[in-house]
Amino acid sequence: MTDQMRVDVMSLDDVKRGLADASIYLVDVREPHEYAAGHIPGALNMPLSAFAPDDLPRDKPVVLSCQSGRRTLLGLQQAQAAGRSDVHTHFQGSLNAWIQAGEPVER
């Protein structure tokens, strides 16, 4: 990751609020089999192995999510390197934090 990369962190409560009022896109960058095994309801799947930053929505903020939060940083790096300076937020803790908080998981 470069020193120029912007990384903002979204809290669990902010992710819940953003999903509830449809003010964000939560993009799960895990592989399809991981996503199918359980994901945050409302999350879109765009696996890091086939990540295409130009295909990310542009009409509202994109927040990246994965299992623990590590892959989201790689996704942010790829998006920003591809010119998507608007993609700079991740849900730190991601699915693990969601489950730990007792939130529902979709399969």
Q: Can you put this structure into words, describing what you see?
A:
The chain has 107 residues and is an alpha/beta fold. It has one domain (8-100): 3-Layer(aba) Sandwich (Oxidized Rhodanese, domain 1). The chain is built from four helices and five strands; from the N terminus they run βαβαββαβα. It has helices at residues 12-20, 32-37, 70-81, 94-100, and strands at 8-10, 25-28, 44-45, 62-65, 89-91. The chain has a five-stranded parallel β-sheet. Strand 2 (25-28), helix 2 (32-37) and strand 3 (44-45) form a beta-alpha-beta unit. The longest helix is centred in the C-terminal third of the chain and has 12 residues, at 70-81. The N and C termini lie far apart (32 Å). The mean pLDDT is 96.
